[in-house]
Structures are given as C-alpha cells and as structure tokens.
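To whoever is on call:

I kicked off a structure prediction for a single chain this morning and the downstream step that reads the tokens threw a length-mismatch warning. I double-checked the sequence; it's 227 residues and nothing unusual in it as far as I can see. Pasting both halves so you can look.
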Amino acid sequence: MPSDWSRSRLPLDEADRRRRRRLLGALAAPALAGLPFQARGGAQIYEPMADAVRAALAARIADSAPPQRRITDIGERIEFIDWLNEMSGRLLRPKPDYRERIEFLRTLDYEAIRAGLDRQLVLGLIQVESNFRKYAVSSAGARGYMQVMPFWTNVIGDGDPRTLFDMRTNLRYGCVILRHYLDMEKGDLFLALGRYNGSRGRAAYPDAVLAAWHGRWAYTPRKPATG
C-alpha cells in the first residue's frame, strides 16, 4: 500500500475539482446533520479470474475462524481497548446501540487485519459507501455496509446474495475484495479503490474515501505511560 497518496493520484482538472468538492459536501452533510443518506454503491464489475485466484478467494470467504482476534500481549490488549472505546464514541450517531457498535467494531478489527488492511481505511470506506447502514442497497444493487455486489456470492461464495446483509459476511466480502484489488494493482490504493467502486482511474471516489479515512477516522494510538 503506497504511503504517499500523491504519487498514485491522477491529475485533476478544474471541473473534476468542483465535482469533488460537491461530492465531499454531499457526503459530509448527512453525517453532520443526521439526514437520510443515499448509498453510493461499490459497483464492482465482474472480471474473469484464474481458477487458482478464485479458489483462494473462496477459501478466505469460507474460513470459519471466530471473528475476534486473540490478543495475549497486555500492551496490545490495552491499545485495542483504547481503539475500541474511541471508535465506539465516534459511531454513536449511526449506531446508538452499544452492543451492536462493539460487535461491529470487533468484527471489523478482525476482518480488516486478517485481510492486511488498515482499520481506519475500512471505516472510511464504509462511511462513503453506506454510512454504516447494514441494509443499505444502492441503485446498482450493491448491498450492506461495504456495498458488495451480489455476483460475488456466485463467484467465491455460497450463491446466496441475502447473506450480504449479515454483518460479518458483508465485512468479510468487502475486506477480501479490497485486498484482492490491492493485489491486482500491486499495492496502488488509488487504483484499487477505483476498482472497488467501478470507477478505476477517476479521482472522486478514492479522494472521498481518503478524506473520510484521514478526517473523521484519523487515529493515532496513545503512547504507553513511562515511569
């Protein structure tokens, strides 16, 4: 994953900049004002893949390991609890139920780290895609938190698109798919996010996710106290 986003961004003309400002304004307003949010929909496009790749992705979807990390190191556990508390507070508006928030965050932590993704990036993507609505459906037919297109259940899943409304299933698909696109693009996050949204090479969607990631979801772990 590139550390310098500017190296992977495509140049924007003035019209693109105006579209980007309008897009970010539209995304920010519902979060701030509690207005209805229209799911943008990650309209992933089916692309033929090698049988070995399909089998590997299917195995990652089917893994039945429990959706929580086992943390034995005390320092790492304290850091995780700090993260959980901080993110729970930020999710209070879209997810007022405490148990639902904690279950969601624990599952997101597990699935993001399992896929080798930054948790804050995944939170930013979900904000842009569905604004944390479990049953969101876009005009393109994408479903759930990470707006996964139903065809994926036939390609690497059990063929039942209804499962995309299950929290854990949706987060697993979304993280596995984004990891797949990152691998396809050799770590180029800009192009991978474009594939995820079905808009590869255009800046509006990657920039919106970037703004959410480094804006609302920016997070720096606290340094442990020294005595």
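Update from on-call: the warning came from a stale cache, not from the record. Cleared it. Sanity check on the structure: Residues 57-214 form a domain with the Lysozyme fold (CATH 1.10.530.10).
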